[in-house]
Design brief:
about 300 residues, mainly alpha, globular
Amino acid sequence: MNANAATAAPAAAPALLRRAGPLDTVMALVRRELWEHRALWVAPLVLAGLFALLLLLFGVRHIELPQGVLTTEQKTAGLTIMQWGVAQLLFFLSTIVVTVYLLDCLYAERRDRSILFWKSLPLSDGLTVCSKILVALVVVPFGTLLIAAAADLVYTAIIAVRVPGAVSWSTYEWLRTELVLFLEVVLGVLWYAPIAAALLLLSVWIPRNPLLWALLVPAVPPVVEWFTLGTSYIWRFERYRVNGIWHKLIAGSDLFADKQHLPTVGAVLGHLNLGGVFGDADLWLGVAAAAAMLYAAARIRRYRDDS
């Protein structure tokens, strides 16, 4: 009886995987990535918790704020600026962690030879690559956005208790700031998709030291061009690919024209050139290039082994 069960068990697992649909398989692979690479979600949580601890211990003291020092509008604007600033710090940390993850995720399975195990399962290379880019471009960015939103509520509560009168809460402005951050994440994911795909391609393609190659590939060509041709086209393209879309996002520069009035972050919504950026050809050409590189990564992984 036990022998029959032991014999049937290995055959049952592939059968279950075959019955699962592609979406179920991708979700299972995403959970695997988050389990194996815990820094993806632990790092922003730790940083947010560290900020809360510092705010409790050293950031603000229990003081009474004199009446009339700050107006209600200034207090609200200050909270939205803090909300935006905290999110930027968490996004920056997540970007570093995701960069390391993309360079290592496909290289590591060749380094430790676990690729032989994963290739023995009924899992396509396309679904595997899809799950990794999904973690990098969807799960982590939007998960960090949720962590930032929760952290901001905690920080606001701490400030309200420690400094009475310093907080002027506005749910409307809080939601508008979250909308600005959401649009920032969506645009960032689309704009930086080719960079993420290129890192993943390096991870599956380069036989050794993908991090070194990730530094050399963007650094060497501009230097060679400068010394051989005396031009800087490659350097200008790389700079544009890093931050070019953000210069197109703000339509007009009159947001901060009034020096006496501190605008809330949500006020930016009225100055965003959303039609211009989401209709920009360079944005969607980059997405198309990312899709091509992901296809190449899946094809290369198909023929990769532990060597």
